[in-house]
Amino acid sequence: MLRPRRLLLFLASIVLAAQYAAGLVTPSLASAPRDGTTAADALYKKLNGDYLSTFNSELEPVLIFLPSTSADVAKFVKCVQPLVGLGLVYIAVRGGGQQPTPACNNVAQGVTVDLRNMAGITVNPTANSVTLETGVRWGTVYQILQPLGLGVAGGRSNTNGVGGLVLSGGLSFFSSREGFITDNVINFEVVLASGQVVTADPWTNADLYKAMRGGGNNFGIMTKVTMRTFQQGSLYGGSVFYPPQSFPSQVDAILSELNSPTTSETHLMVSVAYSKRFEAFGGTVGLNQVYYTAPTAEPPQILEPFTDVQPQFDVLDSMRNMTLIDAANELTTPNTNDQRVAYMNLHVKMGSATLKSASDIYLAGIKPLLDVQNITLSFTFQPHAVSLFEKTSNNDGNGLGLGPSNGPIMSVLLLAWWDNPGDDGLVLGTGKSILEQIRSEASARGTLIPFIYMDYAFNDQDVIGSYGSGNKKFLQTVSKRYDSRGLFQTGVPGGWKVLV
């Protein structure tokens, strides 16, 4: 006998199937496997196993819905809205599946809307824009744009999906010059809770347009986004590995670099990382991933403090002139579909004492984790220059609550990959303890910035609250206007909700 929720979802799938059999739309449906032997079971396992983190692939939706058009999505929303309204069905929306936070893009015993079949790309050279369906991945976008001599503010990994990064704010190789990824959005196509398909831009549904630029999955299902393109040739960049003892000197180099007039052309990630893969180098290494986005025949002087750090593990270094595709290839994480993945972050004002204290806290704090099976740990500083925040006012601003008066600031990011669910408590507890110590130290120094970046957040971090009370109230108002019954607040439980 089916349990009540499974029975209701089964009935919902019948309703959906009846609609599609009538010829209204022809998407695909994949139901939860029974004995693992049928083609449908194999499809389900393939789809549900394709997440960055096992935090999400271990969740088993009763139904995976694969729309091909925005009309499919609209009919789906209309179909399930009554059941969602009664609290009988829960939904998740998945683009690329690369956000590792538990349940943000998959749902146990519910329906997952998997947008991978919506992968259209349309370039408009006259309008300097590209329109992307939400299921496309950034690597595919770059393969289309690069031969045209064009770039776009998009993900730094080929496997990153378009939807999650755009809605969370998004960082790109060009952030110092172009702002957050979401600052480059010209318009959205979105399916509302009513099933209506609408456009949101600075002239039509302008409040929705602003809210979706950083507001996450709170307002509807984004089905298309039109982004600004720009002329872009090769980059200079790559990775430099070195002993961790030199990491403090790289903190000083960041502080100096941010005062350079050419900082808007740089993108910097300065890390200290631990992995058994680095045993030949002592287990813990310093890592600079640095890029200069303007054309240059010679290695740019502004990167020299990061590329010339000595000594280096030369065999691992990769600095060179490269294409955007090359850069995204290099930062594409090796297949971690069978690992746990967790990100946590906070932000601080620039200051040598705060940053060096944070790295000391981290290196001391991770010692209990070094024997966890197949663990990889990373602690990363990413500076956000004033030039980035100058773009946040584009088209009346975004939903993040940041502006030029906030910059420059430093993103402090903790990342972890590990194998066994039995280690979750230790790894997550240790990470949260380290982050809280860094937060307390920065707060005591007066250097803590409230902002938490959604795409790097764990699910218990108060992302929406970190945008500021006024901005949170604005997002709540927009949510109530376009989703008065709260479908995307209660019916889509994953992610960070505005009405909490």
TrEMBL record:
Keyword field contains Signal: yes
GO function terms (MF aspect): FAD binding; oxidoreductase activity
Domain FAD-binding PCMH-type: 57-232
Sorted UniProt keywords: FAD, Flavoprotein, Oxidoreductase, Signal
Gene3D superfamilies: 3.30.465.10
Top-level division of the source organism's lineage: Eukaryota
Pfam families, per the entry: FAD_binding_4
Alphabetized InterPro entries for the sequence: FAD-bd_PCMH (IPR016166), FAD-bd_PCMH-like_sf (IPR036318), FAD-bd_PCMH_sub2 (IPR016169), FAD-linked_Oxidoreductase (IPR050416), Oxid_FAD_bind_N (IPR006094)
Signal peptide range: 1-23
Family per record: Belongs to the oxygen-dependent FAD-linked oxidoreductase family.
Official protein name in the record: FAD-binding PCMH-type domain-containing protein
